[in-house]
Amino acid sequence: MARKIDEDKIARIKASTMKTIVDYGIEAATIAMIASNANVSGGYLYRTYKGKQDLINELYYEKISSLYQELEFLIALNNSSIAPIISAFVQNRIVYSLNEPVASNFFYQLLHNDNFSFTNELKDKSLLLMQTIKDIGINAGEISNNINLFQLYYHIFVYVVDYIHFKRKNIFENQDLINDDVVYLTNNILNFLKRID
To answer: What whole-number distance in Å separates Cα of residue 79 and Cα of residue 45?
Structure first.
C-alpha cells in the first residue's frame, strides 16, 4: 500500500511540475509551487528529488526516451521508407498535443530552454536512430546523401513541435490542428530533406 501511495505522489508531482512550468515558466516555477499543486509537502519532494532541475531532468529524460521508443517501433514497421515513419510520428505529435496539451506545451518549453542537455545515453540513442532513418531514406531515394544527423533530428523533432505550438497559439485566426497538417508537415520535411545539397 505504501508503494501505491508513493507512486500516486510521484505521478502528482510530475503532473504538477508540467502544469506549473506551463503556467509560470521554467525559471519562475518553484519547488514550493510544485509541491503545493501536487498536494505533497516540500520535504517529501526534496526527499525524492534533489531539486527542481533534477525533477525536470527526469521528466525530460522520460519524454525523450518515450519518443525514441516510438520511433524504434515505427522503424520496425517501415524499414524501407521514411515517409510512413515521419507521417505516423507527425500524426502522433498532433494527437498528443490535442489529448495532452499541458505535457505537449511542457515539452515545447524544454526544447527551447538551454538548461537541458542530453545524457550520453540519450545522445548515443539519438545518433543511432537518426543514422538508421538516414540510411533508410538514402536507400529509398527519399533524402539527400548530404543530409546530416542534426538536420534530420531538427526536422523530425523540433520543427514539428514548433509548428504545432505556433498553430495552437492561434496567432492569425482560430485554427485547429487537422489531418491536413499531417500531410503538410510530412511533405515539408520530406521535400526539405531531399533537396539539401
So the answer is: 43
